[in-house]
Amino acid sequence: MTTTQSPQIDSVGDVLARVRDLLPLIKQHSADNERERRVDPAVIEALRDAGAFRLAAPRRHGGLEAGLTSMLELSALIAEADGGTSWVTTLSNIQSWSTCMYPRQTVDEIYADGPDKILCGVVSPGGTARKVDGGYRVTGQWPYASASLHAEWMGGGVWVLDDDGDEEDQAMILLPRSDVRVEDTWYVAGMRASGSNTIVAEDVFVPDHRLISMLPVMSGTYMADHPDSAFYRSAFGPMLVLVLVGPQLGLGRAALDLAVTKAATKTLAYTNIERQAESVAFQLLIADAATKIDTAHLHAYRATADVQRYAEQNVYPDFAARARMRADSAVALRSINSAINTLLDASGAGSFAEVNAMQRIWRDSNVGARHAVMLPQVSMETYGKALLGQRDHITAII
After folding, report:
1. Per the database record, which ranges form the Acyl-CoA dehydrogenase C-terminal domain (predicted)?
2. Using an 8 Å Cβ cutoff, are 173 and 102 in contact?
3. What is the pLDDT of residues 167-178, one digit of tens each?
4. Domain boundaries, the chain
5. Which residues of the chain fall short of a pLDDT of 50?
6. Which of 65, 148, 172, 299 could make a disulfide contact with 328, Cβ separation 3.0–4.6 Å?
């Protein structure tokens, strides 16, 4: 969809207030979203009208350039109502941020009609690009493209091949929806509404300005291209990893709220305790879960504050700093997953009934936490190497 007139939204506060008002609508559609394996169009358009997709868009086109902390706040808020809807919003916004690393001509092309564009993208090189006059011929398949069912532009990683067919560079490209097709491949246990299907491009022409090398992106040299925007100077690896923590924070809060609310009226089965809230064992479990959720927030927001501080100082964080940011994401993820498991222990087998939102929260959180970009084991190994002075990196996304 092309937006020709943007609503009057001047700040992140405006967006958060509007989205907060939408939570009942989002929650109302959450079960249907999962069943249909896509976010209802009415929810998408309501979020678009609220400004949810403009957080990372450039100011010169009406965007907010809001910062990573605000992106987490928005994602967490939406996830309180539905994890899949939050995931779509989150992945669109981080693709919007990375899109602004392209030349100005590219950014102006995408946002010519306003800031409320929905985008999707996959960084890993699922395709190839061969140089031709004026651009490249691209063929590829990119699975796990969250927000693919709603996106107007698609991003994908490619290997740039020389005349002999050898890889000479790793790059990212941008394609309009009209140049690709979306294969329905996302049949999974959780995050079913995210529409993380497979994008397919077959011998598509991509002009020069819609391909950028990954070398300056991974090394941080792109920072010099954004003297007026700290947001676009943010470190690439930490941005990609930490933004995915946002939905988890909201899922943890939703699970805790659900357990606490039901505890006021639900009995503790096979005991003489009439209300779960009166059980010392239940109280201990709730307190344990709540503190784990707090731990996740503390680590997540410490890391986002670090990302923003370095960007504002126009300094690319060194390996040790970036590794700690990844470690913070790992602690946040593990804490949320553990908290939700604890809340399931507290709430009992009834939590797994299909009509109970708790089981959907549990599945969404666990599937989301296993996104390859943010695997806790990779993050912790990376941090351990940094602490021990090792430089044998196992991932470029640091």
Report:
1. 243-374
2. no
3. 999 999 999 999
4. 12-111, 119-213, 234-388
5. 1-6
6. 299
